[in-house]
Amino acid sequence: MFYAVNKLALLAFYLVVLASFAVALPVAPEVVYWARVIAAVLLVAHAAEVLVFFGKVKLYKGPVAVSVLLTLLFGFLHWKPLADAAARGR
Q1: CA distance 7 to 29
Q2: How far apart are the C-alpha atoms of 65 and 54, rounded to whole Å?
Q3: HSE (CB half, 13 Å, CA atoms) of 78?
Q4: Is 90's pLDDT higher than 80?
Q5: Which of 11, 31, 69, 72 is positioned for an S-S bond with 27, CB 3.0–4.6 A?
Q6: Other CB atoms within 10 A of residue 88 CB
Q7: Which has the closest alpha carbon to 9: 74, 60, 72, 57?
Q8: The pTM is what?
Q9: Eight-state DSSP code of residue 61
């Protein structure tokens, strides 16, 4: 449940940031600026996670490209449950 709720919150955050490029949001411009910076930093951090934890990213049952995309979006919220399930299956 923890992972699902946080994935939804992160997805909502990304959608608001994307919307900020198309429409004026009813918040201070500084808030929009920092939300964009945070989103960019998250994407860079998640890209590093793909490289560091690629062995765990590959545990996804679907295509590796989809797992990489999900890790870019959600980071450990995607690959950590996969790693935990694989550890329990040993």
Answers
A1: 26
A2: 11
A3: 27
A4: no
A5: 31
A6: 7
A7: 74
A8: 0.86
A9: S
